[in-house]
Amino acid sequence: MMADRVWWMPPNGALHGVPVDSLMWWNLVILGTLFLLAHVFVLATMIRRKGPVLNRFGVSPKHELVPLIALTLIYAWMAVSAQRLWATIRYQGAAPNALQVEVTGMQFQWYFRYPGADNSFGPTRPELINAPAGNPLGLDHTDPHSADDIVSSVLLLPAGREVDLRIRSIDVIHGFFVPGMRVKQNAVPGMEMHIHFTPTVAGDYPILCSQVCGLGHARMQSHLRVVSESEYSAWLSSHSPTGISGAGR
Ligand SMILES: [Cu+2]
Hints:
Elements: H1 2-6, H2 17-47, H3 61-91, E1 99-106, E2 109-114, H4 144-147, E3 150-152, E4 155-158, E5 163-169, E6 174-178, E7 183-187, E8 193-197, E9 203-209, E10 222-227, H5 229-238, E11 244-245
Parallel strand pairs: 1-5, 3-11, 4-10
Antiparallel strand pairs: 1-2, 2-3, 5-8, 6-7, 6-9, 9-10
The structure holds copper (II) ion.
């Protein structure tokens, strides 16, 4: 708990966040140690008057091979473990039964859409976008698939269940960033980007925009509420199928 307050990493609330944080710490420890060793070596060489015969690189030939091999092995381990972790998290799709939620970024707001009882997102049309009238995403309410869609300005998720987010933008490039979930993905107009994770710890987590997307960028914030499965079901059923819900705001 103390480390959470002293250091800059926000508390982790996601399943994949544990190995991500672990790799981050190993990288910091290794690079910090090498940084210190390099300075100690430089100081020692400056202080010592008589040194061994140096080659044209300024290093003793008999002393350069061991550190060189050690450094190569350390850097190779760091690169391979980072690549493997990234591949596990990002190159594999979500499980077929993962919860489906759509995230839409727009200047300067995030909207979250749940597919409703039919488990299918209805069509959206740009000409129907009308935020003051309660339709910021341009849902076509005449379509039966849209009729039960739930649009929220807060992302509510049940703990212990994988979520598959489809991230999009309807104006410029935004950055969907949830530090507490160790999740960051650009929202690009015309593209649908997927990111999946499993929230494990109930609580409130800030959602930010990590791309400077205009004058209101700094206030483009929302929050993720991770709740129990029963609380999530109650929230879903209590919200009207149309319009914007504020998740208790
Ligand atoms: Cu933005």
